[in-house]
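Repro:
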Amino acid sequence: METVQCIILAGASIVEATQLDNDLSRLRTSLPRARVLIDRAEWGRFKNKELAVLLSLLKDTTHDAEDLLRKLDDQVLQQNMKEANQSRVGQFVSSSLKLAKSLLSGSKARVKEGQSRLDKVVAEIEGILSFTGLTVEPLQLDKPLMPETSSVISEPVVFGRDKEQDHVIKLLGVLPIKCRSAKRMKSENSRAIQVVSGKKACMEDVSILPIVGIGGVGKTTLCQLVYNDSRVKAHFEMRMWVCVYGLFDIRRITKEIIECTSAEISDLSLNALQVELRRQLEEQRFLLILDDVWPNANQEWQRFSAPLRYGRQGSMILVTTRSLKVADLVGTIEPVKLKGLPTDIVWEFFKKCAFSKEQPESYPKLQDIGQSIASRLCGSPLAAKTLGGLLDMELRQLTEQHWITIQNSELWELPHEENEILPALQLSYLYLPQELKRCFAICSIFQKDYSFERDELVDIWVAQGFVASGGSMRLEDMVDECFLMQDFVYWNRRRMPLQFVIRQSRWTVKFLSTQRTGILLVSINCIHLGLEPDSSLQVFDANRSSLKTVHQDLTKLVNLRSLALPPKCLQKLSTLMGIGNMSSLRNLTYFTVGRVNGRRITEPKHMNQLTGTLTIRYVGNIRSKEEATEARLVDKQYLRGLILQWRSDRFKLRSADNEVLEGLYPSRIEHLKLGGFGGDVLSSWFKPGNLPTLRILELCDAYFLRYLSVTFHSLEHTLSGDDSTHCASSRSSNGITRARLTSLTTLVICSCHNLINLDQFLCLEFLPSVKSIDIYGCENIVSIPVHTFVGFTCLHDLKIRGCWKLVCPREMVLPNSIQRIEVWNCGELDRSFPGCLHYLPSLTLLHLRSCHHVELIPLNSMNTNKLTCLVLRFCSKLSAIGGSHALLHIKHVEISNCPELTEVHQPLLNKGLRTKAEKEVLKFIQEYWSYTMFSLDAIQK
């Protein structure tokens, strides 16, 4: 409709504009129908070659229609950009008329042509589906895609699975089992008795054990082994096997269960069948195997299972499935998750299939090739059987070249018979929801063995519109619910439209034009890049390229949703003029505020799809609260981190910063950092009610900050440098409850030189979940409530450094959850040592520096068996640590410049942290150097 309005405003014919609007609406309405038809036709294309051809044509036609609509939307966006940059009326009218002429002359015919092609191919496919009876999923046909299974073991020799077989048999009742939840099948007369084991309960009479695994991993074979085991036969009075294999038809499955226990029965109603099944199962201990259950059973399971609950105590149902959702729905016992076979066993099975009666030792080269093939099968017995059979089909020749061809082939290039590995994998693909098929198919554009980054793949899915949010759920949260099959990654590789993607990985690209092909995704490794202004590009990935800079024309990519650039280019991107034109962009690392149009804080106003962390630099260039409000940070609901950086100036109070910060009110962020803030009070939105999701708070180089606020629901207590009151309770004297930062886990206060007191801010009632406290370089602070720290039961890390005026009338008391402590040059705080170290069983690191009141660290009596890192420096009065033998169990020890300590030779350096996890501990100590350099750098600026 926006396109038509633009045409009408430009003075074009209302009749023509209205007709174009109708044509566009019809085309947009036709696309969802076409996508549903594609999903339905996928089921039948393997059995009808004509349908397969038409399906490919329908996909191409659908893509063309989507490209056409996107192109029209692009033209409108481009026009809007021009209008924003043009000031003279003549230019506006001229450009608008030009756009109207372009839309009416070219788009009208293309829209009609696209609609006609789409209608034609849709009608042809619907005709074939109707004629062949493929109006629904083919699983309702007489002949399923997958073969029906039975309890008879079809393989003469079964390789592996001995341990799994014994484990399942134990779970069948040979040994006591523990059930995983309170799920159970309840009967009307409550004859099921609940047995409690710990916190978990199960249905004592009939238990359900799911066996979960990908297609071809051997679930059916394992059940066959269990079903025919002599111990199982002796244990159960009745055994039944039913292959579900697709559509969960309650009537059919119930009838087949009854036929397992008696002769064939007549065609009865469902009610009669369930009554008969209940009668046969009563007072009998039975084993029922339901092989190959799919998610379509979810809605019918309760109704189907009603008669099964009347079996004798100890009855069992085994359910094989590829879906964890099915296992969670039906299971009363923790599912058996069947993995692939070990490589050596796969090789033995593959060798038998490939060499048949020949002696493998007679063909050493073929053995090497065969082992290479077997190692790539991910433990799949079905894949080993299929590929081994392909080699055995020409056993008389056994040419090395034939084996090499198979070794280098991709799955889709291999000849296959019906019901072998490829149809098995196709079935997994077909059962994906329609939207996930698109997510899955796009993976095929990447080269083989490409290592996916999760966020990279998520960005592509979301940018392409494959994943959409529902309600208030974030797109990334929706993506977490998506799943892909590992055994089917490249099946659609050769079916991707060529115009969909361009990937260049080896040569320099000096100019890339996307105007003619309608490319949506580009991933390159190049040095120079140029883009056409009207590009419809949505995903651009140059993160692994050698790009050094980006061009101003990048901001004309109005449809760009995902942009990945090298770090240096990200810095350059933040200074481009008109970056707000990319309103669909989801990731923007930096934005540098300028003082000219196109660089002001108003640029991100409409960029409400931003995710991750946004760093806004040179906030001081914002002139007022009103201008700051124009950034509309409050509308950016997907933003999770906000870093605001001013120019550090420790010698000048900037009162205007108070007003600017007031206007930069963010939405539900998790990480907030203020750097170089020159005001003296935080904004009114800095209160728990406005920051319910805040997990990390960093206040750095706020030299003049004098107030931190603790806000109540209807009352605010203000904390200043002169306020020495202690922590209030969670409820005030008039019963008003204190609001709390319940999500905050990490607090960093750095170089806030005017802060004097943190008694009310650092209290349990306000920060109940804090895990890490870091206070550094607050040189005028005199009071921190360290005696109350014992209440921080989640506290793991504590750093207090460079607070040399600190007065501590009461000793610090720490919780037993503390793991790492670093204290240096903190006035009277070090008087708390060694008393505060009593019973800290989780302590792994202790770093004391310039602690001149510490005289003793009794390592031999501290009960710190986990202590792995000890650093003691410049402790002038330290005279004892419990002897040198107390250091034997500590892997990393640094002791220096402690003149009174004679128990060890100084300097003492013992670097015993060798593993990656152990070396991570040292980063805790090394971080203070980065803070020091940060502050020095700020002072110099």
